[in-house]
Amino acid sequence: MKSYFVACAALPLMLAACDKAAAPAVDPAKETAAIQKQIDLFNASIKAGDVEKAISVEAADIHGFGGGPDVTSASEDLKQTKEATHDPNYGLVVKADHIEVAKSGDMAWGYGAWDATASDKAGKPVKANGHWVAAWRKDDQSRWKLAAVSNANAWPGAAPAK
After folding, report:
1. 135 is in which domain, residue-wise?
2. What is the mean pLDDT of the chain?
3. What backbone phi and psi angles, to 5 degrees, belong to 43?
4. How many angstroms separate the Cα of 142 from the Cα of each of 3, 52, 105?
5. Average pLDDT over residues 7-21
6. Does residue 106 belong to any structural domain of this protein?
7. When comparing pLDDT for 97 and 16, which is higher?
8. Counting Cβ atoms within 10 Å, is residue 71 exposed (0-12), middle (13-18) or buried (19+)?
9. What is the secondary structure of 95-119 as a DSSP string?
10. Which candidate among 12, 35, 84, 131 keeps its CA 20 to 30 Å from the CA of 91?
């Protein structure tokens, strides 16, 4: 009789646990592909000269370090990138070598390489390259946004990133 009462008392707790929907499983390949689409959008937009679209991949409060003046907002980065694109030799391409999505599916990090071109003081194109490390997070509409990035120039004389 005692075990009957214990089972009856536990039944509401077990039913409550069943009511909670299991969190959907995160598909790392799908999330990685979504981040890669953002990187591809950035590259295509920079190449097309559409700076607003390029910066749309960033979180409003992005923090960026290295590769130019530090930025602490997407609007600040937009302004700086617009200034940089006035250079007729300006070009930037980023490539992800690795992206890793958190088990929760709402944050990710990655690293890769970048290649850039800009004019020197004489107006001639100068190439530079290096590597980056970045953090991504989902916004309130579940879109991946670049939250933080740090760039480093390659060692002088290093070959461009592959």
Report:
1. 26-153
2. 88
3. -60, -45
4. 47, 20, 10
5. 52
6. yes
7. 97
8. buried
9. EEEEEEE-TTSSEEEEEEEEEEEEE
10. 35
Q: What is the band of 120 on the pLDDT scale with cuts at 50, 70, 90?
A: very high
What's residue 7's pLDDT? 47
| pLDDT tens-digit readout, 138-149 | 999 999 999 999
Residue 16 falls inside a structural domain: no
109: buried, middle or exposed (CB in 10 Å: 19+, 13-18, 0-12)?
middle
Cα maximum dimension of the chain: 94
Q: For residue 82, what is the domain's CATH number?
A: 3.10.450.50
Which among 141, 122, 151, 115 is positioned nearest to 56, based on CA atoms? 141
pLDDT at 49: 96
pLDDT at 10: 54
Q: How far, in Å, CA of 67 to CA of 80, rounded?
A: 12
Coil/strand/helix, residue 152: strand
Q: For the chain, what is the domain count?
A: 1
Side-chain half-sphere of 17: how many Cα atoms within 13 Å? 5
Q: Which two tokens stand for residue 97?
A: 């070598």
- The residue-averaged pLDDT of 43-53 equals 97
Examine residue 86 and state whether it is found in any structural domain, yes or no.
yes
Is 65 a member of any domain? yes
